[in-house]
Amino acid sequence: DFKKTGEKRFSKNPYVLLSLIVLFGLFLRLAFFSGMGISDSLTYSKAANDINLGKGIDPNSTLTLSTRLGIVYATAFSYKIFGINDFSAVLFPLLTSIASIILIFYFGKLLFNEKIGLIAAFLLSFFPLEVVYSTQLLSDLPSMFFMSFGVYIFLYAELKKGLKYGLSYLLSGILIGISYMIRESALLIAL
Fold first, then answer.
1. Full-model pTM
2. pLDDT of residue 56
């Protein structure tokens, strides 16, 4: 009886299942690790290294680089802590990809129920583009995470009226602003 009760508790607890889904997603991302690529990845990496060397952002750099400071500074911070290597270069996109799995669970839970949230989290854990881009130094996934987080906070405030005095709306705006600092196309949410 104890074994069956333990199994029921294990399978009925959505947070245990979510933890397993997150571990599965992390395993897939590390199994299909891409590392540094060409083009944008190298530009972000060089800019992050220049920041750590005290040179700052090159004023003659491309317009795209000068508007994507969120990814550059996050990468510079990772370089400062872990040194310059493939893993530290993609740590920020990897963490935001894993956090997206958790966030989509809460989206499903907020809009429907925990079961829908778990299904959504499971699907995102092995979605091919998410897995491949999560270990490349690109701005897409981090920007998407902060944009989604901002929208989640906004919807939560609208549906639950949980946070008072408009702090949730301020937090939502800050998260969308962070998303803009990572990738300028985040302003499309204004439409």
1. 0.90
2. 82
